[in-house]
Specification:
By secondary structure, the protein is mainly alpha-helical. The protein has helices at 3-28, 34-57, 59-62, 65-89, 96-125. It has one domain (3-125). The chain contains 5 helices and no strands. The longest helix has 30 residues, at 96-125.
Length: 134
């Protein structure tokens, strides 16, 4: 599977869950899970869809195992962070490790994505990767 295809698929699943969750909160008039809902929509829907667009625009990169791994790690980190934040806002302190670990997983994965972007752009423009930036 290509990184863009996985990313688009996961983004759609995330937004469907996020929208359903928002409707449940509205019906129940209990918006205590709103921070977790917002994290799911931003990290799951928006970020994954943007990753998918980037990878689709760069076909040689989207077939790499590193790009595919980057998307899987993002999905796992998003689930961990969202569950942790939801637990914390429900008053369950056991969610703290999930939120914390998910946060650091996502930060590390964003560093990986940044590295993929920079490396690709350097190769595309012919800049040797060992050359310092100006």
């Amino acid at each position: 599977m290509k990184a863009s295809s996985l990313s688009f698929f996961a983004a759609v699943i995330a937004v469907l869950i996020g929208m359903s969750w928002g409707i449940v909160m509205a019906i129940s008039k209990d918006h205590s899970a709103m921070p977790a809902h917002a994290h799911l929509n931003l990290l799951g829907w928006v970020s994954l869809f943007l990753f998918g667009i980037f990878y689709r625009l760069h076909p040689s990169l989207e077939v790499s195992r590193t790009a595919l791994m980057q998307i899987w790690v993002w999905i796992i980190g998003t689930i961990s962070l969202t569950v942790g934040v939801a637990m914390l806002h429900a008053g369950n302190q056991a969610g703290e490790p999930f939120a914390g670990i998910g946060s650091f997983v996502l930060l590390g994965d964003m560093v990986l994505f940044g590295w993929l972007v920079v490396r690709y752009e350097q190769r595309r423009s012919g800049i040797p990767s060992s050359q310092p930036a100006e």
